[in-house]
Structures are given as C-alpha cells and as structure tokens.
Amino acid sequence: MALYQGLQQKLQQKLSPQQIQLMKLLQVPTALLEERVKEEMEDNPALEMGEERAEQDEIIPEESTEELQESEDEDLQFSDYDDEDDIAEYRLKDDHVPELQESGSIPHPVDSTLHEQMVAQLGLLNLGTLQEKIAEQIIGSIDDDGYLRRDTNSIVDDLAFKQNIITEADDVEAVINMIQHFDPPGIAARNVQECLLIQLRKKINVNPTPGLKTASRIIDFHFDEFTKRHYEKIMRSLEISEELLKEAMQEIKKLNPKPGAQVSEINKAEQYIVPDFMIYNNNGELELTLNHRNAPDLRVSDEYKGMLKDYEKGSKKDSRQKEAVVFIKQKIDAAKWFIDAIKQRQQTLMLTMQAIIDHQKAFFLSGDETALRPLILKDIAEVTHLDISTISRVANSKFVQTEFGSFRLKYFFSEALSTDSGEEVSTREVKSILQDMIEAEDKKNPLSDDILTEMLQQKGYNIARRTVAKYREVLNIPVARMRKEL
User: Is residue 8, in this structure, part of any structural domain at all?
Assistant: First the structure.
C-alpha cells in the first residue's frame, strides 16, 4: 500500500482545564466535597483554607512575566510550561473522584466482613491441610449475598490451576456441606431453594413442628408451585389443610433468601443522606439555601504569594530560580482555578435548584406527589441556559431537604401523560395512584393489569395496559398472581 500526504480540516471541541475541573466538581456530592478539597490542598500547597483576600489579583506583576519571557538563558520560556496542550498533571488529576454514579457514597470500614467471619468459623473445624485449602477456595467464591455461584467442577479446576492442588469433586462437596453448617444459616447454598432448605433443616433439628416439616416438604418437592403461588395444587399433592399450609407459609416467610447480606460489608453512607440544598416554607414563600459545606473558604497561600514576589525581586539569570518561579506560578494558577471552579459550582447548583423549585412549586408547598408537574432535563436547561449534560450531573448526584423529607433531584423529573381533558400530568402522579390501588386491593383476589388499566382510564388517564405493566415493574410490584395471599 502506497504512502501519501494530504491536508485535512477537522472541527474539534477542546475542553479547557477549568471546564474539566468544573465538570468533575459538579458531580461530586456534598458528602465527598470536603474530601475532594482536602485532596486538592494536599496536591497543591498554594491552596489553603481561609477567606479570600482582595489583593489576590495583584499577585504577579506584568513586567515580571514579560521579563521572564524575554530571558534567553537556556531558552527558558513561559510557554514551555504554560502550554494548554501540555496541562500539568495536578490540574487534571482526579483519581479519587470517579465518573458520575447513581449514588455518591462514603466508604467506611466495618468490624468484620462476611468472608472474615467464615474464615474465623473455619478455624473451629478440625480440618486437614488439603481440606483447609479447599475450604478457603470455597469461602473465597461465596458472593456478598452468601451464595456459592461457582459449580463444584469449576472449584476443582481453580484449585488445580491456581494452587496446584489436585482433588476430586466429592472432596469439594464434602467441604461445602461442612461450610453450609456455618452461620448465618443458608450460607454457601447454590440457589434459593437450597438456601431455604438449609435454614429449615436447622430449625427442624431444634424444634420439629408440623409447620416447619410441611415448609421443608414444600420447598423440597414443590418449589416451582410455591414460586408460582399455586397453593391449591400444593394442598392436593401434599394432602394438607389450608391451616397447615398457612402455618408453613408463615415459617417460610421468616427465612432469609440472602443470608450474607446481613453481615456483608455495608456502605454506611447509604444509611443517611447529606442534603446539598435546604428549602424552607416561609409563609408561602420558598427559601432556598445551599449546604454550607458546599461553600468552603479557600484562598491562595500568602506564603506562596510572598515567595513569588521575593523571586521576582531577585536575579533572573539563574535557571533554577526561574524554574522555581514557573513552579510557584503554576501552583498559584491551579489554586485560583480551583477556587473559581468551587464558586462556579455553587452558582450552577443554586441556579439549577431554583429553576426546579419554580417549576415544582406546588409540590414543595404541599408535599403531594400528585402535584408534581412533568419535567425533563431540557426544560431546566432552557431556563438556566446551561447544557443538558450539566443539568444531568447536578440532578443525578444531589439531594434536597424539604419539610416533607429528603429527595434526590432527579425525583422531580418525569415524563408527561395526557388526560381525557387534554391536560398533561406527571407519570409520577400515575405511578402513585397505581400503587395506592394495588395497596388497597383484596390480596385474596388481586387486581390484574387489565383491571388496573380500566380503573385508571375511568379516572381520566389515557393509558395502555403495557404502560401499566411497565409502571408496575418500575415500582417493583409483582403480577397479580404473585401478589395473591391465602
């Protein structure tokens, strides 16, 4: 293939360091902002806590920059260090703040993890060296829910290839059986059916009641019928009364289908919310405030400003001194950029939240979910004159505290649905009404999707059956057959 030369024109959008800094800061929730500021201060000694001084803009005299640029000693130029195409790493480094996630969280250590507890119990068994190695491999294959998802033959292969341990499937099964007697009950099961059976057998060994024995028979021999709520078929097959079936079902409801979840490592930040905004109702007037943790007092270090002035007064012929000047200049610029980014972050947050308040004022005054109006990201973007991606970053990672509770900002966004009168209502309103209908239904004769559709249409909502099914799935509500109770 012949080589050739040619000219080509391309139009590209190039983000400045400030834009990159702001985009990453926007998606940081309040709970992580303080940590992010600390990291920046550790990376940049020219940034420190304290109220910003007015003389900050007079840090670098114009003549010093010109004098440095005109210096021909060793061809040192400011452009060599201040090129936009060669951005200093500390300006863009953001390793501890990942790309946008549904939930910003703060990891906290726990006393012991599920696997640590399993290893501790392993020490109570009198195992040989081979069995101990097999047990450690099995425990390492248990997931956070407490299930052993890896099949026996795969564990045999793992032992052979990773640890050079040759064993048989029967040996692995024997150790699995030992581990299944560990706490919490149901651990190391291969599926839900086995998990429930392990728990029931442990209970039967302690107190063999008719209800527990019947529950074990149901899970062991009629698990498919149990999952499909075919109670009449179970009663006919086991030849039991409805009272005994109810007793067995009550025992099954006490079981834990995810035994590892209760002791696995939990992110404690998910147990509470640090709101980014607070909204107060002052006699019908909504007042918006930003969490003070979103507005840290930052300034450029006086020490660094003084160092720069001292260097400017000295000789410019020493290359080391000029390198020090460039370094200090970069650090001061980065500090100023970060302070500006924090301020712009505050302005963007307030502007976005105020637009949401103006659109959903009825909800913030009443707390009634049905008062929410249809709202999409584009609507707020048009009002605030911000990009949709910016609104998305704010909405997906921020919370607002109201007198009715704390909400994620994306809670206030929903699509529109038309009524018979032509009025557009929020789909969240329809979901709320749908959920109320299902909660009020007769559980012995639950409402089907067809009946729910008819009931919503009678209320004036133009909605199809497939839409009702979709909303029901979004609300994590099972089909009518699965909601049936004895």
Answer: no
